[in-house]
């Protein structure tokens, strides 16, 4: 008689995104690889610039694994940036030390026409190679950890492409969107279609989950949210679901407020990541019956540590932990975070099933 090996149980992260409630929710932390870790800073200084690190498969793989070795998260996120896509389209992208991103701005159709989708895969090849290496390392050393690939959402990527840097007012990008929607649509469509190719290649290289970061979704007035956030996201999710039906997609429309409802109903995501401003009970009652939710501890709680961290994390777990849920922060880890506070949080999440019984 041939002996059948039982299929290995799916990874906890994938089970949560499929709607399964587990005794202990899976967790990972946005920006879990980064400057709060001394071992990251060591690799970062060896790499040269930040973009050089993103485009160096060996080092990108190494820094992706660093937080897992310390804290054993349930998911690894590819170490990269949302601005590797405009770079791969031929836009000039740089990261000024201590100042954040700088791009040569695109503010009209003539400049837009200079971008070249044809070389996307060639220029993004180091990103795909990093994904392949990370996946092989996970299969070997962290077999229960899922690999997340990611991209920015078209609206947020367009914000950087048009402004040329971070911004307070989003004057240039909003003026283009409001004043010449048909022209701006060409930029959004180019980014959306390139994002489909970019994320598909990440899946083919080994990504098991995809996340779309829409950090500036909250910068739009509600009347424009459907056209520039929901519809482009839906265009991406629909295409990806055709190519890779089994790969769950998490959307993160930061500071979308009540527009989260339309987003969850129409953007085609499997899960939604919540910023710290979303009330927990509202999310549990209104969103969690439709999709899995992820979030939403304020990253400053992780800087503070101690009993306030414990109380805040427990509130998130107690309110969202009985329905499909992935524990995370509501935005990226801050560089001032003491690494031992991350250990405190990881311990708390692991002991939560026992704590609530006692
Ligand atoms: O989560 C992870 O661990 C994966 C890595 C990751 C980075 N950026 C690394 C990074 C991810 C998922 C991103 C996404 C990203 N990049 C977003 C969306 C999420 C968000 O934070 O809202 C945005 C808006 C960007 C663009 C970007 N990249 C900015 C505005 C900056 C400068 C701000 C800063 O913190 O310095 C970056 C740089 C950046 N991206 C760093 C890291 C680790 C710091 C660069 C360094 O090491 O010097």
Descriptive overview:
This protein is of the alpha/beta class and 358 residues long. It has one domain (12-357): TIM Barrel, CATH 3.20.20.210. The protein has 16 helices and 9 strands. A 7-stranded parallel β-sheet has the order 1-4-5-6-7-8-9. The chain has a two-stranded antiparallel sheet with strand order 2-3. Strand 6 (249-253), helix 12 (260-266) and strand 7 (271-273) form a beta-alpha-beta unit. The longest helix has 25 residues, at 181-205.
What is the fold's blueprint, element by element?
Layout (H helix, E strand, L loop, with lengths): L11 H6 L20 H10 L2 H5 L2 H15 L3 E3 L6 H5 L4 E4 L3 E4 L5 H4 L7 H22 L4 E7 L1 H10 L7 H9 L1 H25 L3 E6 L7 H22 L5 E5 L6 H7 L4 E3 L6 H8 L4 E6 L1 H6 L1 H15 L4 E5 L9 H19 L1
Parallel strand pairs: 1-4, 4-5, 5-6, 6-7, 7-8, 8-9
Antiparallel strand pairs: 2-3
The structure holds coproporphyrinogen III.
State the helicity in percent bands: 40-55%
Taking all Cα atoms into account, the compactness measure Rg is 20 Å
Distance between the termini: 47 Å
Count of DSSP strands: 9
Shape: globular
Task: Return the string of H and E elements.
Answer: HHHHEHEEHHEHHHEHEHEHEHHEH
CATH architecture: Alpha-Beta Barrel
Total helix count?
A: 16
Strand content: 5-15%
How would a crystallographer describe the biggest sheet?
7 strands, parallel
Mean of residue pLDDT values: 96
**Uncertain runs with pLDDT below 50, 5 residues or more?**
none
CATH class annotation = Alpha Beta
Bound molecules: coproporphyrinogen III
CATH topology: TIM Barrel
């Amino acid at each position: 008689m041939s002996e059948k090996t039982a299929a290995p149980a799916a990874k906890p992260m994938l089970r949560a995104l499929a709607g399964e409630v587990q005794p202990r929710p899976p967790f990972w932390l946005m920006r879990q690889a980064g400057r709060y870790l001394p071992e990251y800073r060591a690799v970062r200084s060896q790499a040269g610039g930040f973009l050089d690190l993103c485009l160096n498969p060996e080092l990108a793989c190494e820094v992706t694994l660093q937080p897992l070795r310390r804290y054993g998260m349930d998911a690894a996120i590819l170490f990269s940036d949302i601005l590797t896509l405009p770079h791969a389209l031929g836009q000039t992208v740089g990261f000024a030390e201590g100042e954040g991103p700088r791009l040569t701005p695109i503010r009209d159709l003539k400049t837009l026409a200079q971008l070249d989708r044809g070389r996307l895969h060639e220029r993004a090849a180091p990103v795909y190679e990093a994904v392949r290496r990370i996946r092989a390392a996970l299969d070997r050393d962290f077999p229960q950890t899922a690999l997340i690939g990611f991209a920015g959402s078209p609206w947020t990527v367009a914000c950087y492409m048009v402004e040329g840097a971070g911004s307070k007012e989003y004057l240039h990008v909003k003026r283009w969107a409001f004043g010449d929607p048909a022209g701006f649509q060409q930029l959004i469509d180019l980014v959306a279609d390139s994002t489909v190719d970019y994320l598909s290649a990440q899946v083919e290289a080994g990504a098991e989950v995809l996340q779309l970061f829409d950090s500036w979704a909250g910068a739009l007035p509600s009347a424009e949210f459907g056209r520039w956030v929901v519809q482009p996201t839906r265009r991406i999710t629909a295409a990806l679901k055709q190519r890779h039906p089994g790969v769950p997609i998490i959307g993160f429309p930061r500071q979308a407020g009540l527009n989260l409802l339309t987003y969850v109903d129409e953007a085609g995501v499997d899960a939604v990541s919540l910023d710290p401003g979303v009330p927990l009970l509202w999310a549990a009652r209104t969103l969690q019956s439709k999709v899995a939710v992820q979030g939403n501890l304020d990253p400053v709680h992780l800087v503070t540590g101690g009993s306030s961290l414990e109380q805040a994390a427990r509130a998130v777990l107690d309110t969202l932990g009985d329905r499909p849920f992935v524990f995370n922060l509501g935005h990226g880890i801050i560089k001032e975070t003491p690494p031992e506070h991350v250990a405190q949080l990881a311990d708390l999440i692991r002991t939560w099933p026992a704590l609530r019984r006692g």
